[in-house]
Amino acid sequence: MSLVLTLGLFAALTLLYVSADGLLLKAAVGNSWTVGPRDTEADRGPLAGRARRALSNFTETAPAFVALAVAGASLPPDRVWEAGALAYLAGRAAYLPAYLSGLPWLRTVLWWVASGGLLAMLASLAV
C-alpha cells in the first residue's frame, strides 16, 4: 500500500470521526449552540458524548500512525508494515460505530486491533 493511499485513507477516517462528533453534537444541543460562541459547556447526552470520547481516543494514536506511515515509506515494501497499517485503519474504522453503539467489549477488542497494527508497523521498522 502506498504512502499516498495510506494517508488518504487516514484522512478519510479522520473526517469521519470529526463529522460524527460534529453532527451528533448538533443533534444533541441544537444549531443555536453550535453556531454560537460556545462559552458554556453543552450537555452532549450519551451518543454525542461517546462520539467526542471516540474522537479523543482516535487523536491520541493519530500522530503515531502518521509518523510510522511516513517512516515506513522510506523502507522497501514490507508486508508486516502493510498489514499493520491495514489493521490500524480497519480497527479504527470499526471502532467508531462500536463505541457509538455502547458495546464495551467490542470497542476494546477493536482498540487492540488498531494498537496491534501500530505495533506491527513499529516492529517492521526495527528489522
From TrEMBL:
Pfam families: MAPEG (PF01124)
SUPFAM superfamilies named in the record: MAPEG domain-like
Gene Ontology, cellular component aspect: membrane
Subcellular location: Membrane
Keywords assigned by UniProt, alphabetized: Membrane, Transmembrane, Transmembrane helix
Domain of life: Bacteria
InterPro entries, per the entry: MAPEG-like_dom_sf (IPR023352), Membr-assoc_MAPEG (IPR001129)
Residues spanning the membrane: 109-126
PANTHER family: BLR7753 PROTEIN (PTHR35371:SF1), INNER MEMBRANE PROTEIN (PTHR35371)
UniProt name for this protein: Putative MAPEG superfamily protein
Species: Silicimonas algicola
Taxonomic lineage: Bacteria, Pseudomonadati, Pseudomonadota, Alphaproteobacteria, Rhodobacterales
